[in-house]
Design goal:
The radius of gyration is 17 Å and the shape is globular. The protein has one domain: Trna Endonuclease, Chain: A, domain 1 (3-Layer(aba) Sandwich). The strands form 2 sheets. A 3-stranded mixed beta sheet has the order 3-4-5. It is α+β, with helices and mostly antiparallel strands. It has 4 helices and 5 strands.
Length: 135
């Protein structure tokens, strides 16, 4: 039988996982100080200066409640994100759609909006991704 872990310890472990995830990709990162909340004490402090990370390492997540906390802690200074992972699953990042589109609009010009599919394979690609477990 699997060893049961308390929620605080699981949260700390999740923060360390996200810290290591960022470090593995070349970003400076460390666990934040968890005594206050807010932009000055995030779950993970890192070198992506515009991003606030709220870590949720739990089997069940109230995504809107988590995003509300991320928005409050970001204090309007950073883009709020919720990083969530269940046991034996990959990390997911949740963000507001407006913030996502702001990021897309900052991409190089070769990513201009296009409302026409080049061919019908785009729908097949999505189906293939679902079958592979990518979505």
């Amino acid at each position: 039988m699997a060893k049961k872990i308390n929620s605080r310890a699981k949260g700390v472990h999740g923060e360390k996982e996200v810290r290591d995830f960022l470090r593995d990709r070349g970003y400076a990162a460390k666990r934040g100080q968890q005594h206050e909340g807010g932009s000055d004490s995030p779950d993970v402090m890192h070198s992506i200066d515009w991003l606030h990370i709220e870590v949720k390492r739990t089997e069940s997540l109230s995504v809107y409640k988590a995003m509300e906390q991320a928005c409050e802690d970001a204090d309007g200074e950073k883009t709020p994100t919720v990083w969530h992972r269940r046991n034996k699953q990959p990390w997911l990042v949740v963000m507001l759609a407006d913030d996502f589109m702001d990021m897309v609009e900052e991409l190089p010009q070769n990513f201009e909006p296009n409302n026409v599919f080049e061919n019908d394979s785009a729908q097949a690609d999505t189906g293939d991704m679902l079958k592979r477990g990518g979505l």
